Amino acid sequence: MKKRGAGKLRHTCEVQRLNAGATNAYNEAADGTTTVFAGLSCEVSALRGRDLENARQLKTTITHRVRWRSLSSVKPEDWFVPSFDKTKKLYVEALTHDERQMWYEALCTERLN
Known about the structure:
This protein is mainly β. The chain is 9% helix and 45% strand.
């Protein structure tokens, strides 16, 4: 495993989403089946100060910001599982990007598995 530096993108996260149309052995809709569709290097940070107050105007439960590069297929129904704490899921509440679409950013709500 390649050792990550201490730069901005020092965390590794899995991006997960529910399987659409997944069925169980009885051909019923399977609840809670997920797919890891991407693993990416990202920056996970807790919101503080003015950023936290601005995010709470959007939704009061937003607690974290996740920033990454060049994966535009993340949707609001997805969630991040950071490699440093597998007991957390960071559910995407809002997505933004910069004007050149190099950096993507998600404001997330933290929930325990």
